[in-house]
Write a structure and sequence with these properties.
The structure is a single chain. The protein is 68% helix and 2% strand. It is an all-alpha fold. The protein has 2 domains: 71 residues, Arc Repressor Mutant, subunit A (Orthogonal Bundle); 131 residues, Up-down Bundle (Four Helix Bundle (Hemerythrin (Met), subunit A)), CATH 1.20.120.530. A two-stranded antiparallel ribbon has the order 1-2. A hairpin with a 7-residue loop joins strand 1 and strand 2.
Length: 231
């Protein structure tokens, strides 16, 4: 009984099936989805369930639904919003091959800025979070959990709630991918050096140094990910 998981709700199932079909090219950008009756039958759901799934995917930017016209698949990379990222995280079994490097590149832009701001606004909160790095268990799971907690504290402390909203869009997925990243010993060592250096800079309330340290480790993390995934 401990391994029991709740069955997927029909609306979530329909969303996942449609997102998968969009990502695998079954329904490419600009394509029209089958009519409501046929699509519901293909998915094995009721028409009200399908309508709710379509409404959610339209709200997230995956589809354009117009009364009396076929539902059109959007080009998510041009027309989608932040909710598309959440959909990718929740529903896609296979992410586009360049998704993680692109995500790390975005983090390279954001993380130094919100780290500097966090040290300027609330260094004591950041220091409290970093205080446990020395006792961190040398395992991918422990590092992944700690890294998520650290970046969440940094965004919460930086004074700009938009950073937290963006980070929250990757809740769960962040640790999932971080465990893969931290499976490499050298990645854990690099982050441990980062935590120590950031701890020292925070203790000194040296926000510019914290920004520079974060930038450097973000660049290093991209290189380590590429090496690990392109042997």
């Amino acid at each position: 009984m401990n391994n029991w998981t709740a069955p997927q709700k029909p609306v979530a199932y329909a969303e996942q099936a449609l997102v998968t079909s969009i990502l695998d090219g079954t329904y490419p950008p600009g394509a029209a989805l089958p009519g409501e009756r046929d699509l519901a039958a293909q998915l094995g759901v009721t028409r009200p369930t399908l309508r709710e799934a379509l409404r959610r995917l339209e709200s997230d930017g995956w589809l354009t639904v117009q009364q009396g016209k076929p539902t059109r698949v959007n080009d998510i990379w041009r027309e989608g919003g932040l909710n598309v990222l959440s959909g990718l995280v929740r529903f896609s079994k296979e992410l586009p091959p360049d998704f993680i490097p692109n995500l790390l590149a975005v983090r390279l832009v954001m993380a130094p800025a919100y780290t500097r701001a966090a040290i300027e606004h609330a260094p004591e909160d950041v220091l409290a979070c970093l205080s446990g790095y020395a006792l961190l268990e040398d395992s991918p799971e422990a590092y992944a959990a700690f890294d998520w907690k650290l970046h969440r504290v940094l965004t919460l402390s930086c004074g700009n709630p938009i950073y937290t909203l963006i980070l929250n869009g990757f809740s769960g997925f962040y640790e999932q991918m971080a465990r893969l990243y931290f499976a490499d010993f050298y990645s854990r060592q690099a982050s441990r050096r980062f935590y120590q250096a950031l701890h020292d800079a925070t203790r000194r309330k040296d926000a510019p140094a914290a920004e520079r340290i974060t930038h450097d480790v973000m660049v290093e993390s991209i290189d380590l990910w590429k090496k690990a995934n392109n042997p």
